[in-house]
Structure formats: structure tokens, C-alpha cells
Amino acid sequence: MKKMLFVLVLLSVQILSQGKILTKEKADELFGPVRYKVEISTEQLKMIVTKSSEVIMFKLMNNDLYILDKNRNTLLPEGVIISSSEVFSVYSVNIVLQLLSEGNEPVTTVEKRQDVLTITNGMLTLEYSVICPPICPD
After folding, report:
1. Backbone torsions φ then ψ of 7, nearest 5 degrees
2. How confident is the model at residue 17, as a pLDDT?
3. d(Cα 108, Cα 117) in Å, to the nearest integer?
4. The pTM of the whole model exceeds 0.85
């Protein structure tokens, strides 16, 4: 029982601290070139991100950007219903806000690469997300 509780706590901590900021060059080296991307105003993205607590989820579908809050409520585009089986990349709200602040550019890009989704602002790129499902916030 203690072992199971430890694993659950560890998974919770992992989800809440998810994401790592890299240089754009390092991201290109690790994850390959960007296959396609969607641009969003950094100010708009900041406003959206602050509507969620702890974590935020991103996905590119049909060349459109979808963003969900911690409870999988759609923040962008508003009012769209997303299936609970739809897979999203989960990042810590704090690490996304850090990227936007340190990147310091007016436009942010959400990018689809070979096997991952990345978020880039300026010369900085965010990756190392958790995939939900199967690992989703409570």
C-alpha cells in the first residue's frame, strides 16, 4: 500500500512539474525539424494559460491549435467538445509562463515535430510533456 501511494505521489509531482525549456537549436537536434506549426499571440496565450490551474494541455489537430485546462475543458477554441480519449501534451502552467517570459517575443508557435509537440518563443523551446491519456491530472 505504501509503495502504491508513493507511486501516485510521484506521478502527481511529475505531472505538476512537467516540461523543460531548451534552446531552439537543441530542440531541433533532439526532436527533428518542425513539420508544421500554428502561431498564437504571446499575450493571448498568457491569458489562456492563466485560466488553468497547475497544468495546461496542447494539441494540433487538422492544423488547428486546441488548448485544454487541467480538467480537460476547452480553452481554445472555446465551446468545442473534446473526447476524453483524445491525446494531449500536458505542461506545467508555470513552465509555459516561464517560456513566454524568457522568450520575450510577441508571437509563440506550437509545433508538431516527428514524435512530439513543442512550444517555441524566441530562441527557446519547451518540450518533455506528459501525454494525457494515459497519464492525466486529477
Report:
1. -65, -40
2. 56
3. 13
4. yes
HEC readout, the chain:
CHHHHHHHHHHHHHHHCCCEEEEHHHHHHHHCCCCEEEEEEHHHHHHHHCCCCCEEEEEEECCEEEEECCCCCEEECCCCCCCCCCCEEEEEHHHHHHHHHHHCCCEEEEEECCCCEEEEECCEEEECCEEECCCCCC
Residue with cell 525549456: 21
For residue range 23-70, list pLDDT tens digits in order.
999 999 999 999 999 999 999 999 999 999 999 999 999 999 999 999
